[in-house]
Amino acid sequence: MSTHHETRTAPNGRPVRLYQLPESLTGKLWVWRYLILRRVTQVSVLLLFFATAHWAWTFAGQPLLSGNLSASSVVGLIPMSDPFAVLQMLITRHLLVPEVLIGAAVVLVFYGLIGGRVFCSWVCPVNAVTDFAGWLRNHLSLSNALHLNRSLRYYVLVLVLVLSLLTGLAAFEWVSPIAMLHRELIFGIGMGLIGVGGIFLFDLMVVRHGWCGHLCPLGAFYAVVGRAAQLRVRFDETTCTRCGECIRVCPEPQVLNLNQAAQRGLVTSGECSNCGRCVPVCPEDSLSFDLRPLIARHNQQHSVQNPARRTP
Amino acid sequence: MSGTSSSRRTFLIRLVQGASLAASAGLVWTYVLRNQARATPFALRPPGARDEDAFHAMCIKCGQCVNACPYDTLRLATAWEPRPIGSPYFLPRENPCLMCPDIPCQTACPTGALTGELENIEDARMGLAVIDTENCLSWQGLRCEVCFLSCPVKGRAISVERRPAATGGYARMVPWVHSDHCTGCGVCENRCPTDEASIRVVDARLVQGQMGAHYRRQAAEPGGVMVFDPPSPPVPTDTPADAASVPGLDALNLGDLP
Questions:
Q1: Which of A37, A164, A249, B99 is the most interior residue, by most CB within 10 Å?
Q2: Is A211 exposed, middle or buried (0-12, 13-18, 19+ CB in 10 A)?
Q3: Which residues of chain A have pLDDT under 70?
Q4: How many domains does chain A have?
């Protein structure tokens, strides 16, 4: 199998190499760096919320991070709130106080201008669950039991807003398994974990990346919001051999439209959650995190410095 | 031409199919929402909470009020509890509201589900204490009065009234709740010594009647005896123009009969 691949030649004339996990532990840790960082971030966010609620962690006499992902307050100064939840609540036609609106703006500006859809892979507590389901289904070689369109989530998003208008309740917030899991991890375990169990089973048995990649309206919201964000995966066309390793590990493989990425020099879709799975597995180092304004310059320099790498 | 119309037909069918899927999903979703928010029993909310509909719409379920509560009174409803999911509430029999004068829970609320307009905690109306007189020790003739003694709105929300003895019996000293002062904090329910609390905080709307504006309280009466004070009937006038508009019954008294 591997010998077959080694004999292939990429469109740019370079031999197609496949990715291999390093033998050494340090090599492995380096490959898993974004995975480790993501888990550290997710657990840290959870820990800060939990410790503020239960162990009264404070900073300068103020609660460190009070609340949960729906709405919170950093040292009693900076409000943060889930802009999607706030949008639903505004649609119920209730007047909200400025604090929660400012909080939503803070989060919206961060994800919209800087991070993109990083909430999904770096903060959301459900991510660890669905990642585990995805990892397990790869090991068990399970195939999809159902075909779902990846744009279904945008219809769910619209449905949430319509239902919020009709029922006078923030429709997703009342059923959100994300909020349920997060809330109950911080404020006391209840049956909310069953919702997450459902997501785990669905992702494991029914559809690969079923929840995060097909259904979740919050992910859809951040995909729309994060379209113009600065943090992007840069794509270097000159070194890419189209081996497809990145697409194999990507939870949203449709965003790695490499021909389109070649034209723009980056992964453009807002559905990319900047999880960083693709970056370390690329055998040619064609993918890396970068900021949008720097990307064109980087790619230009790269091709100027290494003219030999260009297509003959 | 036929190709165009068949693709238009496919498009329309898909549109209808999509709309039907959305509608059925929306119906199930709405059913869940209504069950969660409207068909669940009364839960005691933090002080300053808006009425249930507005509260449910505006509470973002963040738990900052829970964190702000210094006595761990407030908690967030978990899924499948018989209370609206994620909303803050308290169970007075386990842990009542101790009525902090600075109302930290209200200050912590980022959305305005707790209005923030409550200035005096004694103006809070979380619920209303009601007494089960069949099981209340004082009402059964013992000198208990624990609720009266523990009430934070001392002497005003709960008073002890002397009930004269029936022939051959003793007089009783019974607790009496006054709705114009009871905040619904639930300290009485928490301290009540009977096995099941004989005084409980409930939704005021479930137990409180409304007299109607035509009943007047006689201020001079110390016991607050009610009198029936019907609204005065319209003053009949003799002018023919007005007489025409007077209803039939009153027209009999206009003095223009033969």
A1: A164
A2: buried
A3: 1-7, 302-312
A4: 2
